[in-house]
Amino acid sequence: MRAAYDVVIVGGAVIGSAVAHFLTANPDFNGSVLVVERDPTYARASTSLSSSSIRTQFSNPINVRISQFGSAFIRDFANAMQVPGEAPPDLNFHQGGYLFLANTAEQEQTLRENHEVQRACGADVVLWGPEELARAFPHLRVEDIRLASYGQSGEGWFSNTGLMNGFKAKARAQGAEYVKDEVVAIGRDGARVTSVTLKSGAVVQAGTIVNASGPRAALTARMAGLDVPVEPRKRTLFVFDCARSPEGSATVNKGRLPLMIDPTGVFCRPEGRFFLSGAAPVEDPAVDWDDFEPRYEEFESLVWPALAARSGAFEAIKVVNQWAGHYDFNTLDHNLIVGRHPEVENFIYANGFSGHGLQQGPAAGRGVSELIIHGGYRTLDLSEVGYERIVEGRPFLEKAVI
After folding, report:
1. pLDDT per residue over 201-215, tens digit each?
2. Which domains does the chain have, with CATH numbers?
3. Where is the FAD dependent oxidoreductase domain (predicted)?
């Protein structure tokens, strides 16, 4: 490890490693990159504990385009992340699509408005009434459904750790350095951050610092005398077996079922021979950064009742596994924060993804690299999700948050 780096990235999971990759892959960048990761096993990283899905069904054009880039990048990941002498990374991208269901007039109107935005961006999304929905997915009870929104391509789920490890391996092959350590202090001289102090005692000079520390983003920012409205929120995921699995019963997409979001907010998707499900809790407080105890009761109180009401196939199911992970939850507007601090411009945020970090990681990583290399965005303009809105208390509105 050197005494100074052009860029120091705090956090080496999917966001930090995406930034490291795009920096070192760009021929216009000839600087040095250090990624500081406190736990390289990533056992409790939001990346590792995610349901690892991607969708284009958002209400805001920038979020749609972020995911469109992410989807294309994931499809070509094996080629883009190939490291000489190693097997190409396989993300096993399962393009099952997303299925949003609406059973109130308000939900229906939201789906219709979102659909206009999605189609304007070129997303492959269709709207169905209850009859079309029933034909496509015969196992569903649709009597209460007013409208469904289905992503026919470009949406699905993939390997979360595969994405992270692919970025990391490629970044290291391109010259980025990774160190197992923890940032415990950040030096600042007026309007610039200057260094990071590590738990090991090392002090590393930094030309630019990137905050990619997930749910711990606020802790990192405070070391520099700054802030960001991000806190850890717990999400419990359940894997269940099904006595009469409906997988294979669809009349679209070769019989494969999508990731379904019920009007209650409960989601469910195939996971091999099982199913993965979860829901936002009724009470959703911030939790301790080390609190990963699953909320076991949510399956009986939230998940199973909604699924059993939606499909007879889900009346007889049994939990076979569960775990809890953390959203790096942006309390202002539940959306990503990517960009420089307006007063400390060599401190860059890549935080607050609120459960969308994996799907938005490729675009965020590319965007941060462009800010560092070129001083501005060259591809997708992420200015709308910059830190300025945090200072101004101006939420970036997105209706399709789950």
Report:
1. 999 999 999 999 999
2. 4-65+160-230+332-392 (3.50.50.60), 97-154+232-327 (3.30.9.10)
3. 6-371
